[in-house]
Design goal:
mainly alpha; 9 helices
Length: about 230
C-alpha cells in the first residue's frame, strides 16, 4: 500500500517495475502514442470494471476501438498492460500536485495540503489499489512492484522528516526512517480502509474526507512533536 508524500520534498520518481523493465519503449510517432494511450486508458476501465482475472485482451481492444492485432505492437500480454496502467496511477500518486499553499513557511499547513492531495489521489485510484493488493498475493512480479512503490514513498517521507528535524520543527530524537515507516503505514492503512474497504461494504458509512485529512495531519504533527501540537 501507499504512504503520504509532502509535495515540497517531491523529487522521487516512480520505482522501476522490474521484472517488467522489458516494457517496450514508448512509440515515437504521434499516431503510435495515441494508440498506446488509448489502450492503457481502455485497459484501466476494463480492469476496474471486470477485475484482473476476468479481463480479456479482446475486451481491452474493443474498448479502445482498435484492432486486436494492434495490442501486440505495444504490449506482450495482459500483465504488461496492467503494469503500464499501474505506472500511470503511481505517477499520479507520487506527484498529485497540491497547488499553492498560503503561509507555506508553516510546516503544518504544508503537511495538511500534502495529505489532502495524496488522499485525493488515493481516492481517484482506489479501484486500482484494490486490484494491486489482490494480484500481489498471487503474482510475484506485482508483489515486488508493490514493495518498491511503498519503499519510494517511505524514503521520501524519511527525507522530509529529517529536513523538519534540521529546521527544529520535528522531534530530533526520532529515527527518520522508523518514524516514516510508522506514519506512512498509518496513512496508508487509513486510506485503504476509507476508499477501498468502505466501497466493498454494502452497509459501510462513507468517510468524511475533511475529517480524514484533519485526523491524519494531526496524528503526524503530534507524533513528530510539532510546536503547539503535542
Amino acid at each position: 500500500m501507499d504512504t503520504t508524500a509532502p509535495e515540497e520534498l517531491d523529487g522521487e520518481t516512480a520505482p522501476p517495475v522490474a521484472p517488467f523493465s522489458h516494457l517496450r519503449e514508448p512509440p515515437t510517432t504521434q499516431r503510435g502514442a495515441r494508440t498506446r494511450a488509448a489502450l492503457v486508458k481502455a485497459a484501466r476501465k476494463v480492469f476496474e470494471r471486470d477485475g484482473y482475472l476476468d479481463t480479456r485482451l479482446t475486451d481491452i481492444t474493443k474498448e479502445a476501438r482498435c484492432a486486436a492485432g494492434s495490442f501486440y505492437t505495444y504490449f506482450a500480454n495482459k500483465e504488461e498492460v496492467l503494469a503500464a496502467v499501474l505506472l500511470e496511477a503511481q505517477e499520479d500518486m507520487m506527484h498529485p500536485g497540491m497547488g499553492r499553499v498560503q503561509g507555506a513557511a508553516d510546516p503544518h499547513a504544508v503537511l495538511e495540503a500534502s495529505n489532502r492531495a495524496y488522499l485525493k489521489a488515493y481516492q481517484r485510484n482506489a479501484k486500482l489499489m484494490a486490484l494491486l493488493e489482490q494480484i500481489a498475493q498471487v503474482e510475484p512480479e506485482f508483489r515486488e512492484f508493490r514493495g518498491r512503490r511503498a519503499d519510494a514513498f517511505i524514503r521520501r517521507n524519511a527525507r522530509g522528516i529529517a529536513d523538519l528535524q534540521a529546521r527544529g520543527v520535528a522531534d530530533p530524537q526520532l529515527d527518520p526512517m522508523m518514524a516514516s515507516r510508522a506514519l506512512s503505514g498509518m496513512v496508508s492503512g487509513m486510506a485503504y480502509n476509507a476508499f477501498v474497504l468502505s466501497e466493498e461494504q454494502e452497509q459501510g458509512t462513507p468517510v468524511d474526507f475533511e475529517e480524514l485529512v484533519s485526523t491524519v495531519t494531526r496524528l503526524w504533527a503530534n507524533a513528530l512533536r510539532f510546536p503547539g501540537h503535542h
